[in-house]
Write a structure and sequence with these properties.
two-stranded antiparallel ribbon; 3 helices; about 50% helix; two-stranded antiparallel sheet; alpha+beta
Length: about 140
């Protein structure tokens, strides 16, 4: 595995964590949204990662056993569960029974997920910084 391929792996991790942070932020911003253009309350979204592509030849898999090829976002799942129902008869979105459908979003859980995404992003930055230093020292040795 070359140092430059390790940089691209860290870059793919940063991109995936950025997407995750954007989706979590969207969830937090819409935690109290009871009406969307599609009708009904906002639905929580969750990012699914997958390992970056592997090549089919045995020699390349054997040679790159330590470098799986990075990470990418394979899907953004939308929660299909029942929304949380709160009794608020005066609310404009209340049904005939007086209940309002709210998104099933736990702000504390979303904040923990956001901190995790931030730490993952920071870990990839640290990895890229260490790789940059290794490349710089290698170039200095070749002078």
């Amino acid at each position: 595995m070359s140092l430059f391929s390790a940089l691209s792996i860290s870059a793919s991790g940063m991109s995936a964590q950025r997407t995750r942070a954007e989706v979590i932020t969207e969830n937090l911003a819409n935690a109290e949204t009871t009406r969307t253009p599609d009708g009904g309350p906002y639905r929580r979204k969750d990012v699914v990662f997958e390992s970056g592509g592997g090549s089919p030849s045995f020699s390349s898999v054997f040679g790159d056993a330590m470098a799986p090829g990075g990470v990418s976002v394979s899907a953004i799942n939308v929660d299909q569960g029942d929304p949380e129902r709160r009794y608020q008869p005066g609310h404009p979105d209340a049904g005939a029974d007086g209940y309002v459908a709210y998104p099933r979003i736990n702000p504390a859980e979303e904040m923990v997920d956001l901190m995790s995404a931030s730490r993952g992003y920071q870990a990839n930055i640290a990895s890229m910084s260490a790789l940059k230093d290794m490349i710089s020292h290698s170039i200095d040795l070749l002078r």
